[in-house]
């Protein structure tokens, strides 16, 4: 059981962080589109970025900054233009963005990180950012998480934020996070952005390791449509303002902080999957019995990404054959006579043999989970996933992935003529 | 230029083959569902099968047969039940199918190959096959290709068949093929089946090599939804009834036969992609400038399979950003400053720089190709693909992949509640 508690405040819940989000006129819709996150003091920074060989200028920029020094004090994020496939001009723009923020906050530009999401191939109107910046900085506050979470959204239906607090030897450490997901901004592409703040003091190398592992178990385990973005970015800051003892080496304290960090990332990841374009429910695929965790995760991801299975779930069809087929093509060897598949608490296949399960009950489970997921306040609860349990053998490897169903709405959102 | 001609006759165009297809009552629809292909003499056999670790009993059976001896004289194929995920019973059924056909044709059961497509996890009603077999054999004819092509269909809209003839030193050699594609049979899954007949005499090892390479350049380069089937099967027979000199070794003659075989496979593969569930047009992705052909093919496949790009094509949206993003995530390294993308004859990105192309013309091209593809006699022409040309550098590696757009109809076909 987790021995921490959920608190309000998102990325400004941890001590020593302020944030803001405003309308800068970058989105045609006129919605908020420029966010700034600032730490009171230089923070240890870690990042995980898209694996795409076509990556946006801000991704290249952040990678280079992190390689030079694992330190950051501010993150500027705009929505509206992705600054991807923008050639040499795109690179100049990201340098200018960092310079503008650095000048305004009296920080070295190297300590300003930049992220973008939106249309590919369109330049960011830098003058609009220049104009908006004084207001943005003026609105920085230690309760600014919600405004920032709103400003990084594209076609997300709801903002995504969480904060956790745990007691470390009598002193609280807090981790907060915001994310945007698999919304598409016309006319281009989905991007996953996540920003995490932490007020613990952690050594740079350890923090990067923690962030990478947490990302592997969360953001790398969600899929909406399999289309890795040019801009995917997770940036995580640790600023030491909790005044708790610095966490330098691996050990129980570091493990506990990492577990808490992973929880933050998993919540954000699930929120992104749940808010996948056109989604009506959240899928949670649990795999066990693999030789190692990586194999189990790969199978879970493959099932979560199967268009056939996703379509079946949208139709509330307990189509276990499509699950079996997806498991088989994941690239992980196993003996199909060991394959068992369960939907909710209904066993559908056991040790390679199909069972005569209650199809009406299985259908009812799918209907019910989708209803529950949509009855929450936001209509976007992650508390009622459709759970698939898969076992492929006797190994100790396990993994979980999250996804969503495939609906007419997905096609509609992405087929609409927009250029 | 290919120095062979298209002829009619499909798999019964080559000498020494007969085929039939009838209604055996395996499909709930009552449509033809049982096909038989027979060579007058034992033929050299080669096969390529699904890479899925969950594979159907007939796939396991054919693999074992080919490993034991590269010889076959008959292929029985049913549509309606996939005989996949059927446990021990499935294995018994496939042995019984081969035995029944062997007994009826007075052939050793080892020379009878079996393929299935349809619902996963449901047993094949063997009694219906037993009952239908005398009629099926009675209808075997050297013009039976069409009947067989019809009987292997699931939700395919049109049967898929081709035959080519070339002159080898004054004597004709013929290759024919039929295939079924990415239709889904309720309530389960898409399967690709292809059967190729050839009347040349080819040594077993050489024939398998030719078939494997041809498959790599055709069937392995199409994607409808990325869901590899449990039953995917290509079986190719070479029976020597052309009476042309046996082709034993690699060389110009073998290369020419392989090119012709590849042409047959490519035509069938394109037909399958064009007839992808819900598709309104065929996509042809041409990639050049890679370090090797395999890398180029991988990129082409990734673009052809991108849900975002497929949705955009359905919306007739010349969304090159989604193409660039898909190229980037294919897992092949390249310098994004070398990336060029062209739609039809409209250059959209050159050497990493986005161009101000004529968007109306690009949209018109997409509209026009879809119209042309649907104006043909069958409504399923493969002659007017939407062509995307991608260059990633100066390397000599090139590759092509085919796919189709993603429409509401795809979701409808696969979401319908059916169990």
TrEMBL record, chains A, B:
<keyword id="KW-0963">Cytoplasm</keyword>
<feature type="binding site">
    <location>
        <position position="191"/>
    </location>
    <ligand>
        <name>substrate</name>
    </ligand>
</feature>
<feature type="binding site">
    <location>
        <position position="277"/>
    </location>
    <ligand>
        <name>substrate</name>
    </ligand>
</feature>
<feature type="active site" description="Nucleophile">
    <location>
        <position position="191"/>
    </location>
</feature>
<feature type="site" description="Involved in the stabilization of negative charge on the oxyanion by the formation of the oxyanion hole">
    <location>
        <position position="118"/>
    </location>
</feature>
<comment type="function">
    <text>Catalyzes two activities which are involved in the cyclic version of arginine biosynthesis: the synthesis of N-acetylglutamate from glutamate and acetyl-CoA as the acetyl donor, and of ornithine by transacetylation between N(2)-acetylornithine and glutamate.</text>
</comment>
<comment type="pathway">
    <text>Amino-acid biosynthesis; L-arginine biosynthesis; L-ornithine and N-acetyl-L-glutamate from L-glutamate and N(2)-acetyl-L-ornithine (cyclic): step 1/1.</text>
</comment>
<keyword id="KW-0012">Acyltransferase</keyword>
<keyword id="KW-0055">Arginine biosynthesis</keyword>
<feature type="binding site">
    <location>
        <position position="180"/>
    </location>
    <ligand>
        <name>substrate</name>
    </ligand>
</feature>
<dbReference type="InterPro" id="IPR042195">
    <property type="entry name" value="ArgJ_beta_C"/>
</dbReference>
<protein>
    <recommendedName>
        <fullName>Arginine biosynthesis bifunctional protein ArgJ</fullName>
        <ecNumber>2.3.1.35</ecNumber>
        <ecNumber>2.3.1.1</ecNumber>
    </recommendedName>
</protein>
<comment type="subunit">
    <text>Heterotetramer of two alpha and two beta chains.</text>
</comment>
<comment type="pathway">
    <text>Amino-acid biosynthesis; L-arginine biosynthesis; N(2)-acetyl-L-ornithine from L-glutamate: step 1/4.</text>
</comment>
<feature type="binding site">
    <location>
        <position position="414"/>
    </location>
    <ligand>
        <name>substrate</name>
    </ligand>
</feature>
<keyword id="KW-0068">Autocatalytic cleavage</keyword>
<dbReference type="InterPro" id="IPR002813">
    <property type="entry name" value="Arg_biosynth_ArgJ"/>
</dbReference>
<feature type="site" description="Cleavage; by autolysis">
    <location>
        <begin position="190"/>
        <end position="191"/>
    </location>
</feature>
<keyword id="KW-0808">Transferase</keyword>
<dbReference type="InterPro" id="IPR016117">
    <property type="entry name" value="ArgJ-like_dom_sf"/>
</dbReference>
<dbReference type="GO" id="GO:0004358">
    <property type="term" value="F:L-glutamate N-acetyltransferase activity, acting on acetyl-L-ornithine as donor"/>
</dbReference>
<dbReference type="Pfam" id="PF01960">
    <property type="entry name" value="ArgJ"/>
</dbReference>
<feature type="binding site">
    <location>
        <position position="154"/>
    </location>
    <ligand>
        <name>substrate</name>
    </ligand>
</feature>
<feature type="binding site">
    <location>
        <position position="419"/>
    </location>
    <ligand>
        <name>substrate</name>
    </ligand>
</feature>
<feature type="site" description="Involved in the stabilization of negative charge on the oxyanion by the formation of the oxyanion hole">
    <location>
        <position position="117"/>
    </location>
</feature>
<comment type="similarity">
    <text>Belongs to the ArgJ family.</text>
</comment>
<keyword id="KW-0028">Amino-acid biosynthesis</keyword>
<keyword id="KW-0511">Multifunctional enzyme</keyword>
